[in-house]
Design brief:
The chain is α+β, with helices and mostly antiparallel strands. It has helices at residues 37-43, 48-61, 99-108, 114-121, 180-185, 190-194, 244-252; strands at 6-12, 16-23, 26-29, 65-67, 81-83, 90-95, 126-131, 136-137, 142-145, 152-153, 156-162, 168-176, 178-179, 200-208, 218-225, 228-236, 261-264, 282-287, 291-299.
């Protein structure tokens, strides 16, 4: 998958959202061939390999190219900047897919967390709605943590990208911002712990690789405060308990996604119980083969 194209969205002043292919340090604009992600997702149904080949061909033919560093700006109307790689898609999430996640959920739960032990080994995975486009931010934008919670953490995750036919298009990086305090108080509070303003970050782009096998890679998390590292850890994606076809099967049961969907696949990186995010902390999530998703955090 090392040569797979990475599809991005970016903001062009005076023109709005555009699509590009990230190749090394350069962006190749492909918006003339692919006006929107949703249109690309829909057109890929039944012909995923052909659609990805068309993206590669459009990048080869593009005359509009520029250094990717020109996107490294905070979002503003008058600057080029990264956008989250979604437009009409919903973001869903799978929980307790790693053993370490099960242990962490049990530790934070007021009642001992038996529900998390049971869902880890159950036939049906935990899948929940995470975010719409309005609550999703991109690379270098600000991600939010809840003002009414005293225990907030990022959750670095590999995300699956699927088209409306529930066919794999590839992978991206996700940050499932979460209130451990609220979820720990009662599992029924999960939507409040997970769904709120700027609660999800995605990016920087989509690795177009339609595989039913896990990307064999490492997820790395670094949290910095006032320029100094305060937490870091890593995990191999080989530790995910569920399979990709299994998760997509349950994602699609009794539901449809006209613009496609994203599925965050769980986390095994859990900061210690005494750690909570503070305003202006910087969260950097790196997944080998995709890139780095970085966000400053704010209280919302």
């Amino acid at each position: 998958m090392t040569n797979a194209p990475i599809l991005i969205r970016y903001q062009q002043p005076g023109e709005g959202a555009r699509l590009g292919v990230l190749r090394g340090e350069a962006v190749h604009d492909v918006s003339q061939a692919f006006p929107s992600l949703a249109e690309f997702f829909r057109d890929s149904c039944g012909v995923v390999e052909r659609a990805i080949a068309a993206v590669t061909a459009a990048a080869d033919a593009s005359s509009r190219r520029f250094p990717a560093s020109e996107l490294d700006n905070a979002p503003a109307a008058d600057t080029r900047h990264w956008l989250p790689p979604l437009d009409e898609q919903e973001v869903w999430a799978a929980g307790v897919t790693y053993l370490d996640s099960r242990k962490a959920r049990q530790e934070e739960a007021v009642d001992g967390g038996d529900v998390y032990a049971r869902v880890y080994s159950a036939e049906r995975p935990e899948i929940f709605f995470k975010a719409s486009a309005k609550n999703t931010v991109g690379h270098l934008d600000a991600a939010g943590f809840r003002a009414d919670s005293s225990w907030n953490v990022p959750e670095p995750e590999l995300a699956l990208v699927v088209n409306p036919a529930l066919e794999m298009l590839g992978f991206t990086i996700g940050n499932d911002m979460s209130s451990r305090e609220i979820e720990g108080e009662n599992p029924l509070y999960l939507p409040q712990a997970k769904v709120y303003t700027a609660s999800c970050a995605l990016g920087p782009g989509i690795l177009l690789a339609p595989s039913d096998e896990w990307l064999d890679t490492t997820i790395r998390l670094v949290i910095s405060r006032a320029g100094a590292e305060v937490f870091s850890d890593s995990v191999s994606t080989s530790q995910i308990k569920r399979t990709i076809p299994e998760l997509i099967d349950y994602l699609g049961r009794s539901n449809s996604y006209p613009g496609g969907a994203y599925l965050l696949t769980g986390t095994a990186i859990v900061p210690p119980a005494e750690f909570t995010l503070q305003p202006d902390d910087v969260v950097s999530i790196t997944i080998d083969g995709i890139g780095t998703l970085q966000n400053r955090v704010i209280e919302v």
